[in-house]
Design brief:
The structure is a homodimer of 214-residue chains. Chain A is mostly helical and 214 residues long. Chain A has 2 domains: 65 residues, Homeodomain-like (Arc Repressor Mutant, subunit A, Orthogonal Bundle), CATH 1.10.10; 139 residues, Tetracycline Repressor, domain 2 (Orthogonal Bundle), CATH 1.10.357.10. The N terminus of chain A is likely disordered. Chains A and B meet through helix 2, helix 9 and helix 11 of A and helix 2, helix 9 and helix 11 of B.
């Protein structure tokens, strides 16, 4: 709203400043919502809690996000879209061999879950807090992430390099074990994210019956 | 308290009746707490919500569980102790071969997570809601469950039947993929619990580099 008013003033510089501060305000609210959802759960959090944590007014909070569920949806959608993009980019960079493509997808999945632990936790624990329509949209978005993995498993089976008799369960097992990295990974632990990602790629390939390491 | 009063009456029969109704009341409160935590989260749930759902009075609720966190701890401890017992019993029934023991543990883990989905969800989403001391106790209890699996992986590595170079990650991957069954399993789905459990046992063995099926 502020940005719109300033736009009518015709001052390019002030539009840029306000737009930037708007983006920052929005990011600060998303960050505050994420922190509060992690600590108190969605149902235990009020818009007032989020505004207070972001150092924002209630009216500014409602301006950016008409409801608490909009904050939750934005968080969940954002991390899932980033996950899909990361998996697809990793797959496409890996070349044509199914084992390389699978390893790249698993590494990208694990890396993202070592970096965005809070969003992953909220994504898993608060799916219940969306209404049926929003939940269906989120499940469909996650299915797209699953489809990236399943597509490469299908390529490997078709090429005869994967031999797993239960590709459906293998895909679910890989997706969930990689997602769970967000729940146990600690930056101060023995293995760095890239090393964990490599080990998980090996485990996933072994599960699919691929002989050796990609 | 009711039981105690009746005990002083010296009537064995009425003690038994009251004790039974006490156990039922306790179970009803645990069930109500579980249902409410699943729907609203721990922080979004009040003792009044739990009492209302159980059809109990507030005073009876506080009699059995001095605080909301006692209900949460009882739920989380109960399912984890049952998980450990199920894994240990399955392992011990499976005989001496590490692959058989591992497959039995995985099957028991998966089976429990197809049966107790709500408790598994609350266990994962509400660990944050325990204070530091209770959380440490719960983590230690879960570590005991993990140790059952890790022990058998170590047996298999020592015997040379497992060849996985990352047994630590493999154990975490197996535990988390089996736990996640609680989040996606649907009784009306294509595979019955026993079939899912068998497939997961195969996947776990493949991950550990075991050739063939236990």
């Amino acid at each position: 709203m502020v940005v719109k008013v300033r736009r009518t003033s015709g001052s390019g510089a002030s539009v840029a400043v306000e737009a930037e501060s708007g983006a920052l305000g929005r990011e600060a609210l998303l960050k505050a919502a994420l922190d509060t959802f992690v600590r108190q759960g969605f149902h235990g959090t009020s818009m007032r809690d989020i505004a207070a944590r972001a150092g924002a007014s209630i009216s500014a909070t409602y301006y950016y996000f008409p409801s608490k569920v909009d904050l939750l949806k934005t968080i969940m959608t954002g991390v899932t879209e980033d996950l899909i993009a990361a998996m697809e980019a990793a797959r496409d960079r890996a070349g044509p061999a199914p084992a390389d493509r699978l390893a790249a997808i698993v590494r990208a999945h694990v890396r993202l879950h070592t970096e965005r632990q809070a969003e992953a936790f909220v994504g898993n624990s608060e799916l219940r807090s969306l209404d049926a329509e929003d939940r269906a949209e989120m499940v469909a978005l996650r299915d797209r992430a699953g489809a990236v993995l399943k597509g490469v498993i299908a390529e490997g089976l078709a090429a005869g390099v994967f031999t797993c008799p239960h590709p459906g369960e293998a895909a679910l097992a890989i997706l969930t074990m990689c997602t769970a990295v967000a729940s146990w990974f600690r930056p101060e632990g023995e293995a760095a994210p890239a090393e964990v990602a490599d080990r998980y790629a090996d485990l996933a390939l072994a599960m699919l019956g691929f002989p050796g390491r990609a």
